[in-house]
Amino acid sequence: MKNLLVIVLASLLIVACEKPTTKVKEAKTVAIEPFASTYQPMASTPTLFKNATILIGNGERLDNGSLLISDNKIIAVGTDLTAPDGAVVIDAKGRWITPGLIDNHSHLGVYPSPSVKSTSDGNEMTTPDTANVWAEHSVWPQDPGFNLARAGGVTSLQILPGSGNLIGGRGVVLKNVPSTSMMAMKFPDAPHSLKMACGENPKRVYGDKGISPATRMGNMAGYRKSWIEATAYREQWDQYNGDLAQGKEADKPVRDLRLDTLAEVLRGNIRIHNHCYRADEMLQMIALSKEFGYKIASFHHAIEAYKMAEELAKEDICSSMWSDWWGFKLEAFDGIKENIAMVDKAGACAIV
User: Which of the listed residues 286, 301, 316 is the one where a domain comes to its end?
Assistant: First the structure.
């Protein structure tokens, strides 16, 4: 379910010398998605690529293959395709065609290049739980990094907040198209994500400020506090909406942006993407998700995923992993180059 702004139209009976009631008996709702996608495919000409080596995307390879694109969509892949009238024909002999790459963990737009403080907008490190912030509101569409990524074949990206907070805020999925507006890049109907982080980063950021969390036990206490608050908030709104549906009078709860996001996670409408390196901490985060009834979509970086690959497969949790980057801090010290292969062999979801 998309994040919705609910406009309540109600009839209130105001009696002279009495205060207006805050109870609502009947309501009509108009669903409005805030910051909705305005993406429109760019104008294009039918194009036929011939004589290419084509990687289909399902593990198959097609030599001397042809690929036809029309209306910004792949219409056909084969070895003997005919170009329609007016199509551009490109001889791709000696070249490769692959599916567009999807970057599952990107900070393009929120940490643009060149790196300068005035556009460093990926970490709202002002309080440990900033579930109220949305990465899309920091995206600068003119970041030169989008062009570089497009040249490298990246067609879609999940833009995430940084990992300085326990709960860093919402992520957004973008199409990598030239635009002056984030909304015009926004992938239509893609669900929001929520960035969480465990381990060294949050405890370092806030421990250095002399506030909690300063330890890993402080990290866990912080998560649990937020999810307890979110559970109560969700129950209040569920009760309110249930009463309205039955025609009962109901007091409308006060809306809170932070708890809006966390409640939607608990309802299964926003997906958790969890920065985490060590196997023991990933297992704790799985236990935490079961305590409060939410689903982790993917652990990010997951340096020690190989130590718990069977558990990841059992829980149907992906790992978004580096191919060979490790050892740059203590919690990344136990990385191995076989990490991705071992996770894949265990039958778990492995993302490079």
Answer: 301
Instruction: Specify if 25 maps to a domain.
Output: no
Sign of the torsion angle spanned by Cα atoms 247, 251, 256, 262:
negative
Question: DSSP code of 2?
Answer: -
d(CA 286, CA 336): 22
On whether residue 269 sits in a domain, the answer given is yes
- The pLDDT tens digits of the residues spanning 254-308 come to 999 999 999 999 999 999 999 999 999 999 999 999 999 999 999 999 999 999 9
The overall pTM is greater than 0.85: yes
**Tokens at 97, concatenated:** 């065609």
Identity of the amino acid at 184? A
DSSP classification of residue 50: E
Q: Pairing mode, if any, of strands 167-175 and 296-301?
A: unpaired
SS3 244: helix
Structural domain range at position 71: 47-97
